[in-house]
User: Fold this.
Amino acid sequence: MTIKEVCQKYNVTPDTLRYYERIGVIPEVHRTPGGIRDYNEEDIKWVETATCFRSAGMPIELLIEYVKLFKEGNNTISARCELLKEARERILEERRKYDEALEKMNYKIRVYEKAVKTGFLEWDDDSNCCSYNKQKEKE
Amino acid sequence: MTIKEVCQKYNVTPDTLRYYERIGVIPEVHRTPGGIRDYNEEDIKWVETATCFRSAGMPIELLIEYVKLFKEGNNTISARCELLKEARERILEERRKYDEALEKMNYKIRVYEKAVKTGFLEWDDDSNCCSYNKQKEKE
DNA sequence: ATACACCCTGGAGTTTACTCCAAGTCAATG
DNA sequence: CATTGACTTGGAGTAAACTCCAGGGTGTAT
Assistant:
């Protein structure tokens, strides 16, 4: 599979995939005799993992560490497991923050939608909302 | 409330809060006669909103836009509502990616934990996992 | 065999979101 | 009233993660 095809599949640019390979986010990719990248199934799985973890905000540094451990072989299995567990904790924590933001957003959207209908913008007193200039906001 | 206290409350640095104010992520903060920032309740709510939305990955550009609309007054209420709805869609999409990554991670962790116990590392054939060098991995 | 699209490398440049700094001001304390 | 420490500004610097580019090679269709 050419770099272009892999890029389409995972919605990244060729520059990004070459960059990932160069710095060790994925292991070296198989090449044609002419030196052109020809991603095999394993290569593609690494790309899938890298793009998936990256889009969940896992830092590149951690992915590099993971690939480094992987290349060292079987005596790094528990280290890899620990690395993933720590990464999981981080991501869970991030997701918790996302949920908090979503809650705040939902509240604001509800208030604004009501305001669009009624013409009155009313925030709860302790709602941690953007109620600066509250008097002016109420028509 | 001093900048330092607000920073402790929301776990950011004074530089960050001053930066937010300078570029319009939050409106201008109340000052003492001497010119020192003295955050009142509204100011603090803006900080809370900004830090909350930022930690969910909402780009600064959008927050600036939101504050700009807010400053323009009541005729931007529906625009603000639309902005928040779009932001919510983005964040929901991001969270979906987080869930996908968590699923992949959980699978890998399960396999590694089993390997630590049994000494055999076995990936499902179509598990999109880092099975490159599969032969070597099985002891 | 030559045109054309695509690929290669190494290195420089860009974007986003801070983060640091110098030079100066403010305010509480001894 | 001087010292100490926190605050101010504008501007420069930094980190992470790409993104772009020049100069050149590959491969396939006519």
